[in-house]
Amino acid sequence: MTAAMLTTMMVCFALTVSVAVSIGLAAIFGIQASNAHMLISVKEMFNSINRFPLAAIPFFILAGNIMESGGISRRLVDFAKSIVGGVQGGLPMTCVLTCMIFAAVSGSSVATTFAIGTILIPALVKHGYSTPWSASLQATSAELGVIIPPSIPMILFGVSAEVSIGELFVAGIGPGLLIGFALMAFVWVYAKVKGLGKNDGDGRLSLGAATVKAGWALLMPVIILGGIYGGIFTPTEASAVAVFYALIIGTLVYREITLSDLVRILRKSVVSSAVIMFIIANAGLFAFLITRAGVPEAIGIWLQDVLKSPVYFLLGVNLALFLIGMFIETGAAIIVLAPILTPVAMHFGIDPVHFGLVMVVNLAMGMITPPFGVNLFAACTVARISLDRMIKDLIPFVLVVLGCLMIISYVPGLSLFFRDLVYGN
User: Fold this and answer.
1) Residues near 390 by Cβ (< 8 Å), separated by ≥ 6?
2) Which runs of consecutive H residues, i.e. helices, occur in 53-130?
3) How many other C-beta atoms lie within 10 A of the C-beta of residue 277?
4) Closest CA to 98 of 118, 70, 69, 127
5) In 10 A of CB 98, how many CB atoms?
């Protein structure tokens, strides 16, 4: 059965069939090969999405789309520029910092790419940065949308591996800050070496004026994250609060969202949510079948025999996840692999929350690596260039994130410090 499933999935990938459909077809062939009843597929697909924490996904997607259309993202850009825009290379640093702030609400890297990229990619090009480099910067910075909490992939990992989503969110703060500051340091050095960005401060507001202008927008992550960490509401409830707050600010305070805009936003959010839920449903069925076939136990035993220590285990897992993330959508990979790898990680004494961060950060790189990097396609759409033009400029950004991943993997305190501080573990 397992061979039939894997063969079917690989053939579908080779034929460029979508990831969700490939996984679903592979699962159906697995059911047929094992002579099981097809009703299993309906039952397990429903069970995969019939989980309360998953309700946060469509709400965070909707909140991100409202922020994009309601003037919130533009005000966040002005605020970030007032902080770092005055130095040489300040504009690309503004891109990274804005993505960090925007990520603290949206939970989606694709939403971050569109919301911030439509503003900053043209501005970067206008200030002399090449279009491919600007698009690569935006795609990489937007990756922070799934690392800095709240994060949709963290929700998926928490549900799949039965790990506290709240603890994952708190643990994501350290890795998110590390990657964000590393990217800002890199673009600052790049601008210095290339002699770019000497006029990046043009049109920059003072910190006070920018803070007043973006005040309502800046309150959004404070309310959402403060409510989660303060125990006022759960991450799922926080997603609904994010939608309500963004809607009030966009329609009544900034008054940049009309009724026709709202219809378009809702339609876009429904389509995005449906795609993710379809992937989750198919990946859930696939995971159920391989678990039933004893694959997780077999892989676990093999890993324990081959990788004798936590150091080698993390190195092997990172290499495997990096390759997997290049070809399989992040959410689907997490749903399939988290139940398999997390127990093995715990056997090696690795905290499941720390391992969750390693897994999320690693697979998030799949969003900025060809051939199926969704952030790359989003950035290409905004910048109106082809993917092949980005590859050369993208490599240094990927290497920066890879370096941060190694630190995150082997310095667990970076992820667990805030978790232990908040939850007292």
Assistant:
1) 132, 135, 136, 139, 376, 379, 380
2) 56-69, 72-84, 90-106, 109-126
3) 18
4) 118
5) 27
The letter for the amino acid at 11 is V
Contact (CB, 8 A) for 325 and 369 = yes
Q: How far, rounded to the nearest angstrom, does the alpha carbon of residue 198 sit from its chain's CA centroid?
A: 32
What gap in Å lies between CA 163 and CA 370, rounded to an integer?
30
Cα 5 off chain centre by:
28
169-173, 301-305, 365-369: least confidently modelled range: 301-305
| CA separation for the pair 235, 2 (Å, rounded) | 36
The whole-angstrom separation of Cα 122 and Cα 383 is 8
Start-to-end CA span in the chain (Å) = 42
Structure tokens at 151: 């994060």
Note whether residue 375 is domain-resident: yes
Q: What is the dihedral of CA 57, 61, 63, 67, to 10 degrees?
A: 160
Contact partners, residue 216, CB within 8 Å, separation at least 6: 72, 249, 253, 254
* pLDDT per position as a tens digit, 337-371: 888 888 888 888 899 999 999 999 998 888 888 76
* 158 neighbors 165 (Cβ within 8 angstroms): yes
Tell me if 290 is assigned to some domain: yes
Segments forming the whole domain that contains residue 90: 37-423
Query: Among 331, 315, 300, which Cα is nearest to 410's?
Result: 315
Six token digits for residue 335: 């749903």
Nearest to 228 by CA among 154, 309, 161: 154
Say how far apart CA 300 and CA 240 lie, in whole Å. Answer: 38
Does 175 fall in a domain? yes
The reply to whether 275 falls in a domain is yes
Q: Summarize pLDDT for 187-208 with one digit per residue, the tens.
A: 999 998 988 878 877 777 888 8
Nearest 5°: phi and psi at 16? Answer: 60, 30
How many domains are there within the chain? Answer: 1
Residue 102 tokens read as 């925007």
